[in-house]
Every structure is written in structure tokens, then in C-alpha cells.
Amino acid sequence: MKDLLLTEDQRDALQEMMNISMGQAAKSLAQLIDVQITLSIPTINEASPDDLVEILNHSDDTWYARQSFLGQIKGEVLSLISKEGCDAMAELMDYDKPLCDAQTQELILELTNILSGACLSGLSSQLELKSNLNMPTLFNSLTNGKPNYNWATVLLVEVCFSIESFSFNARVVICLEENSIVALKASLDALLS
Amino acid sequence: MAIPVTIADDSALSRKNVRRAIPEDWDVTISEATNGQEAIDAVEAGLADILFLDLTMPVLDGFDVLRYVKGNHQKTVVIVISADIQPKSVELVNSLGAFRFLQKPLKAEELKQTLHEVGLL
């Protein structure tokens, strides 16, 4: 039986790494739109694939994107972007208004790339574990059906970026599959020692 | 006499990093705070002539602490150590009277140099 639970020190260190990674992600986006983004305190939770299915469960007010990553740590990044605030965001990012479906899709994928890309690369570089992120795709549980995960346990590392002036928020959830949790714990221990 | 210094950060690892980066020959008494309210309490209790302050913290964040210190304890020297490196966050920190903004992860050499620059070492 693998020990997949994080110790308090490991959890604290991972949270701090995620804090640094999200700061870099926010800087990348803030430089594009010239607006200050409010950062949440990262949360870390053990979960089952059912919990992931639950996170991706359709809600009318949210865009969903999924993106897998492979390497010394493996898993998937889920991005949940509020529909509210997307118009204002599009304007700041120089999209033509009104947004057609194709442009909306492009906007969501661009935001996903900026935020989840910086979060994952920041995390993997601090952990000194290589990983490659695939292109994101939009996801809708009503038309795409339930996602299929062949993992028993996952670790969810979640952050939230929000912009109060136009009610925008984006949740980025990094899901690590169980073998990666073992690699993560070893790497955290090496960095803590 | 030892200078009272408080490290305010919700991460134990991060507080430890700051502690390690503080020059050994600097005569200070170090206290710790794990959220913004505790940081304000430390300032009120006279434990923070110098305050190393994180921005993203629970209860009250670092921006709230800066506002409070600016309004009530202008002699407190605040050095912000944060991962929130957005240009607008740095601007806001400066406008709220912080002495310096240092980026996480903190480098010991950079802290030492900063302490020299602001005349604390």
C-alpha cells in the first residue's frame, strides 16, 4: 500500500510552491490586461476521480477546459473560467466585440494556457520534476459525457484568480495521479531536508 | 539592544527561509506571525520595529496590514516578501509605504543587500 497522504511539512511546502507559481501566472496575465488580479491561498486536497467528475459537472455560468500533462509527474489540469467577466477580459485582450463562438473558444483556451501553463511549469521547476503540458481542449459534460480516469487517488492543488471590478474568476486545479504523488513526496522531502 | 523583528507569513517553510536569510551577526529578536491579524498584533505589542510581510495571507492580507501600519505605526519598517509580483501589486505596496519589495523565493544575499541599502545593517 502506497502512502499517498502528505505530511504537514510537505503540504506547507507544496502550498508555498503553488503560491510562487500562481504569482508568476498572475504576472503574465496582469501584464497583458493591466489590471490587478487577486490571488487566493492555494488549497491541497486528496480526492477520488469521482470528485474530478464532480468538478467538471456542467454549470451554465462556467467554461471548462482540460489539459493533460506527462513526464516525471503526470495528471491533468482543469481550468474553470467564469462566463461573467469574459467580455471585459476579451476587450482588455484586444478581441473584437461581440465575441463569436470561435473567438470565445480562443479566449478561454488562451486564458487557460497563460494561467495553467505558468502554474504547472512553476510547480514542476520548483519540484525539479519534468513535465510536458498538452494543448487544452474545451470540455462540456453535457456533450462530452463523463471523463474517464483510471486512477484510484488523486491530489488536487487548486488556486483561484479573481478580478473584482468585473466579477471575473478562474479556478485552476492541478490533479496529480497516484504514482506522481509518490514522486512529489520524495521531491518535497529532498527540498525540505 | 536587539531590534524586534517579526516575520509574517502563513507558510512555515517561508518563515523558515526568511529566518535563515537573516544575517547571523544582526542583533535582532525574531517573532513570527501566521496571518495579517497576528502581524498587526505583533506591531501593537512592540515586536516589530521591522516587519517582513507576505501579501497572500488568511484573516487579513498583507495589503490590509500595510494600510494599518501606514495609518497607525509609520515608524515600523516594512519589507514585503511576496510571490505576488504583478506590477500593480508592487505599485500598491510602494504606495502603502513599504520600504522594499522582495520577490519569493527569497535569496539571502538579496535580503542582506536590502538591509544595507535601507541602513538597517
Explain this structure to me?
Chain A is of the alpha+beta class. Chain A has a single domain, classed as CheC-like (Chemotaxis protein chec, 3-Layer(aba) Sandwich). Helix content of chain A is about 45%, strand content about 25%. In chain A, strands 1, 2, 3, 4, 5, 6, 7 and 8 form an 8-stranded antiparallel beta sheet that branches. Chain A starts with 7 loop residues before the first helix and ends with a helix. With about 120 residues, chain B is α/β, with parallel strands linked by helices. Chain B has a single domain (about 5-115), classed as Response regulator (Rossmann fold). Chain B has helices at about 10-20, 35-45, 60-70, 85-95, 110-115; strands at about 5-10, 30-35, 50-55, 75-80, 100-105. Chain B is globular, with a radius of gyration of 13 Å. The interface of A and B includes residues 15 and 27 of A.
- Indicate the overall shape of chain B: globular
Task: Assign the CATH architecture of chain A.
Answer: 3-Layer(aba) Sandwich
Beta percentage of chain A is: 25-35%
Count up the domains of chain A.
Answer: 1
What is the CATH topology classification name of chain B?
Rossmann fold
CATH class of chain A: Alpha Beta
* Number of beta strands of chain A: 8
Quick check: average pLDDT of chain B?
A: 96
Given the helix and strand composition of chain B, which structural class is it? alpha/beta
What's the rounded overall pLDDT mean of chain A? Answer: 95
Uncertain parts of chain B: none
CATH superfamily of chain A: CheC-like
Rg of chain B (C-alpha, Å): 13 Å
- The name CATH uses for the topology of chain A is Chemotaxis protein chec
Strand order of the largest sheet of chain B: 2-1-3-4-5
Count of DSSP-assigned helices of chain B: 5
Total of domains of chain B = 1
Q: Which superfamily, in CATH terms, is the homologous superfamily of chain B?
A: Response regulator
- Label the overall shape of chain A: globular
